[in-house]
Amino acid sequence: MTIETALDDRTFTKHESEVRSYCRGWPAIFDTAQGSWITDVDGKRYLDFFAGAGALNYGHNNPELKSALLDYISRDGITHGLDMSTVAKGEFLETFASKILEPRGLDYKVQFPGPTGTNAVEAALKLARKVTGREAIINFTNAFHGMTLGSLAVTGNSMKRAGAGIPLVHATPMPFDNYFDGVVEDFNWFERVLDDSGSGFNRPAAVIVETVQGEGGVNVARAEWLRGLADLCKRRDILLIVDDVQMGCGRTGDFFSFEEAGIVPDIVTLSKSIGGYGMPLALTLIRPELDVWEPGEHNGTFRGNNPAFVTATAAINEYWSDDQLSVQVKAKGIEIAQAFDEICARHEGLSHRGRGMVQGLVFEQAELADRTCEIAFGKGLLAETSGPNSEVVKLLPPLTMTSEELAQGLAILSESVDEAIKETNA
Question: Has the keyword Transferase been applied to this entry (predicted)?
């Protein structure tokens, strides 16, 4: 008997913490994965519209990336290197600069703050405060930036914030674009409180923003809103941090999600798919004049994940040497939106929003989103919900998914919506 056949859910309920979540919505024991598919121990295959919460933009076990990784491991390449200089890191830095930054006219120093997105955010906030000598950070309603204390302080979700167990301070939430249901907002209010000595508002060190709020419900900021925000920050000597942890690496079409707006943030955070293969890696990108760190002032044991450097380099060379992937992502985003149009035309109380290959189907009856994902799982599709009330079915398919696979998954989702609504009306 193999270990796979000996396993069942009791292993996890007995030994693993109650904090686990995704496994509760997807009650299967997964074993192998390739491309857009993941297979459980019983041989059932699932089409993956989740992609590791956006960490697998190039699919599971991408063969080009796997080949580079196996070659590196087989020659005993460095695995753990802290912040020592290694061949793998140097090749990544050269490739990232020549194929990502320079073609976009961007000039950033690269900091490796630790293995995850929240490490990148913590480093960005800490550096902004060091540079400016100020403490306050402006964040936005429904934002999500991570689970460590600094990142939680600029996160909107009340359940996650409550888990901190202490007051989360030095951050002020402001309304994200379209927060007031279609009423066009500008930044006059922001400037007024900055100028009013009676407002009780401390001049902030930085503003941190997601161009598309994934966990917050696929809330998409308009390009003109982002430009207005960037302009205000520049005029008022406030640093602009764009959190591109989930929306970067091509998720919205362009490599960086802020490219469409034509803005240049002071600091950018990247993680999830920057490693290419699903291995931990995070970057904090810093305008050179802001790089005022003292050696060792911010560090971490796992900030030099060399196998991730290898697969990150391979991913950039394979997918970002030209604009083909970007073009395909934007085209597939239109296909998803068209499929959502058809679903919304059949049913009242539904709408949709998104950019590129992050798309959300929004339910007025929040419980229908969860039920839709539950039915879809039974049909062999992985999709999750997001939003403050889990009212959005959020799609994050691998960017490399074929058009046939995309159509197959959208058909399953459409059927699942129909069944969930039929149950409610029965």
Answer: yes
Residue 324 has pLDDT above 50, yes or no: yes
Q: What percent of the chain has pLDDT over 90?
A: 90
Residues listed for the chain:
426
Q: Is residue 55 assigned to a domain? A: yes
Average pLDDT, whole number, for the chain?
95
User: Is residue 207 domain-shared with residue 304, that is, in the same domain?
Assistant: yes
Q: Are 420 and 368 in contact (CB under 8 A)?
A: yes
67, amino acid identity: S
Report the candidate in 146, 198, 122, 137 with the shortest Cα–Cα distance to residue 169. Answer: 137
pLDDT over 50 at 403, yes or no: yes
The 10 Å CB-count burial string (b at 16+, else e) for 290-316 is beebeeeebebebbbbbbbbbbbbbbb
Residues 142 and 279 reside in one and the same domain: yes
Q: What is d(CA 328, CA 312) in angstroms, rounded to the nearest whole number?
A: 20
> Are the CB atoms for 391 and 218 separated by under 8 Å?
no
Residues 197-201: what's their mean pLDDT? Answer: 80
Nearest to 201 by CA among 135, 122, 142, 145: 135
For the chain, the farthest-separated pair of C-alpha atoms sits apart, in whole angstroms, at 73
Which of the listed residues 319, 335, 354 is the one where a domain comes to its end?
319
Please, what sign has the CA dihedral across residues 110, 111, 115, 116? negative
- Specify whether 99 is located in the same domain as 200: yes
pLDDT confidence of residue 2: 43
Tell me the residue range of the domain where 299 lies: 77-319
Amino acid identity for residue 107 in this structure: D
Total number of domains constituting the chain:
2
In the predicted model, what is the mean pLDDT of residues 362-386?
Answer: 98
Query: Quick one: average pLDDT of 355-375?
Result: 98
| Residue 331 and residue 314 in one domain | no
Is residue 380 domain-shared with residue 314, that is, in the same domain? no
Q: Does 191 lie in the same domain as 293?
A: yes
Based on the domain organization, do 266 and 375 belong to the same domain?
Answer: no
Could you tell me if residue 109 is inside a domain? yes
What is the reported pLDDT for 183? 61
Q: Where are the beta strands (DSSP E) in 296-421?
A: 350-355, 358-363, 381-382, 384-386, 392-395
Say what the pTM is: 0.96
User: Of the candidates 292, 319, 346, which is a domain's last residue?
Assistant: 319
Q: What is the distance, to the nearest Å, from the Cα of residue 237 to the centroid of all Cα atoms in its chain? A: 27
Higher-confidence residue of 39 and 425: namely: 39
The confidence score (pLDDT) of residue 3 equals 45
CA count, 13 A, side-chain hemisphere, 294: 2
